[in-house]
């Protein structure tokens, strides 16, 4: 699982109890933001539901066992990379960083269930984050390590009452790498095919939410993170990014409040986590009868898509106002990143839902598409084709994928704002750092 081999705790377990846990985790080999049904676990394991209760008292007991295994295996992985990562930090040896980076990416691709379990159960409140941090701390202490050591690597203070960031660059690098791997792994697993030219002409959309061949693998993603996407002549300097910040400003006074159902949905996710979203909980939050919601929407999925489409359309319209006059494609990407982060900071009540649907690979259904609801409407320079040829990559990336990648990183930055006590200015500084990682790579001499 790390520099030399997979951690032994991730290898196949033999007992019946461990086998049930294996099956439960197998549902997370693709993005999953709902509770796993005990009936589905039993069916996949070839046993009865009652047999599960011979090993676990109830669902809650199974959930705790999954949590315990997850943190145990994460601890084993941290131990396996500790020596190389510590040496890289102190010696500034890029080759050691590269080893850790590439083996970490490889691990995520070999064990996607751990990545998607982490995303599905990621803390969305300070309370959840504190509980998860204490669990990890306990596991580390059992293996003779400390959370303080881990915090030193990640640039975060880890104590029961303080999760503030003391090293923005380290924090930004870890956050950027993790969320980028998650995003591209989801695309890789989606198995979507590029639509035919006739389909594109019929829909009037020149860009699709897919990559052209070749498909992603761990080496491709490692290259993307390692070396960046642009050649040196296209790099934006820190000074130029600061100059562009003024152009990236959104007039938030002209944006209406978010839909109350959307805000309630965000509250449900904040309270119960991604797997805990139910129509009943949404109705209770709104002080409405469950049947009242179904009188407007035939399913939870339809409800979410409808509300999300309206919010994203408003967001895209706002972004287009600030991005429409930018002619340089590299500057456009930065301005989009900066402006989107400003939008998210102003409307954090919609951010949880946005991240949930984006990270689950959700696509807006055709019946909700607006004619001009597309990132392709940004006025890019004439020499940029429908697919952006990124200098350092062996493939072409559609603008839809490229800008969605930026949006996922942006949303992740703002999602952690309150947990890590970040100011708005901290978030904007992290945007600059992450954009520099995008263009130059994580192991660039300048980084």
UniProtKB/TrEMBL annotation:
Keyword DNA-binding carried by entry: yes
Record feature DNA-binding region, as residue ranges: 37-56, 278-297
Domain HTH tetR-type: 14-74, 255-315
Keywords: DNA-binding
UniProt cross-references to Pfam families, sorted A to Z: TetR_N
Top-level division of the source organism's lineage: Bacteria
GO molecular function: DNA binding
InterPro entries in UniProt: Homeodomain-like_sf, HTH-type_Tx_Regulator, HTH_TetR
Protein's UniProt name: TetR/AcrR family transcriptional regulator
Species, as recorded: Treponema parvum
């Amino acid at each position: 699982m790390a520099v030399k081999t997979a951690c032994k705790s991730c290898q196949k377990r033999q007992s019946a109890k461990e086998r049930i846990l294996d099956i439960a985790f197998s549902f997370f080999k693709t993005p999953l933001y709902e509770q796993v049904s005990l009936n589905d676990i039993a069916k996949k394991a070839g046993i009865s539901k009652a047999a599960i209760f011979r090993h676990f008292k109830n669902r809650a007991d199974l959930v705790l066992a999954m949590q315990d295994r997850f943190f145990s295996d994460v601890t084993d992985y941290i131990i396996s990379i500790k020596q190389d990562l510590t040496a890289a930090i102190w010696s500034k040896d890029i080759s050691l960083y590269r080893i850790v980076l590439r083996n970490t990416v490889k691990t995520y691709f070999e064990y996607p269930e751990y990545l998607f379990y982490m995303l599905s159960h990621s803390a969305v409140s300070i309370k959840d984050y504190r509980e998860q941090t204490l669990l990890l701390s306990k596991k580390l202490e059992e293996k003779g390590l400390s959370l303080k050591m881990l915090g030193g690597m990640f640039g975060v203070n880890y104590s029961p009452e303080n999760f503030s960031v003391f090293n923005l660059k380290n924090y930004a690098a870890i956050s950027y790498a993790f969320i980028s791997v998650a995003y591209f792994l989801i695309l890789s697993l989606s198995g979507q095919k590029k639509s035919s030219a006739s389909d594109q002409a019929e829909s009037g959309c020149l860009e699709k939410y897919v990559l052209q061949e070749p498909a992603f693998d761990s080496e491709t993603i490692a290259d993307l993170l390692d070396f960046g996407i642009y050649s040196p002549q296209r790099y934006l300097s820190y000074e130029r990014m600061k100059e562009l910040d003024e152009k990236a400003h959104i007039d938030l006074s002209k944006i209406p409040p978010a839909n109350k159902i959307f805000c309630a949905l965000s509250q449900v996710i904040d309270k119960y986590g991604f797997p805990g979203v139910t129509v009943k909980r949404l109705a209770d939050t709104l002080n409405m009868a469950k049947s009242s919601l179904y009188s407007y929407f035939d399913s939870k999925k339809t409800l979410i898509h409808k509300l999300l489409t309206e919010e994203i359309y408003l967001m895209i319209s706002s972004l287009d106002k600030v991005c429409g006059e930018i002619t340089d494609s590299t500057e456009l990407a930065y301005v989009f990143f900066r402006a989107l982060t400003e939008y998210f900071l102003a409307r954090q009540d919609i951010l949880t839902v946005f991240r949930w649907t984006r990270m689950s690979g959700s696509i807006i259904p055709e019946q909700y598409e607006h004619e001009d609801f597309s990132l392709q409407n940004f006025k890019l320079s004439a020499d940029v084709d429908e697919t952006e040829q990124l200098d350092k990559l062996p493939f072409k990336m559609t603008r839809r994928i490229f800008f969605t990648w930026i949006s996922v990183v942006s949303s992740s930055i703002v999602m952690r704002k309150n947990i890590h006590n970040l100011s708005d200015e901290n978030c904007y500084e992290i945007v600059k750092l992450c954009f520099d990682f995008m263009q130059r790579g994580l192991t660039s001499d300048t980084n």
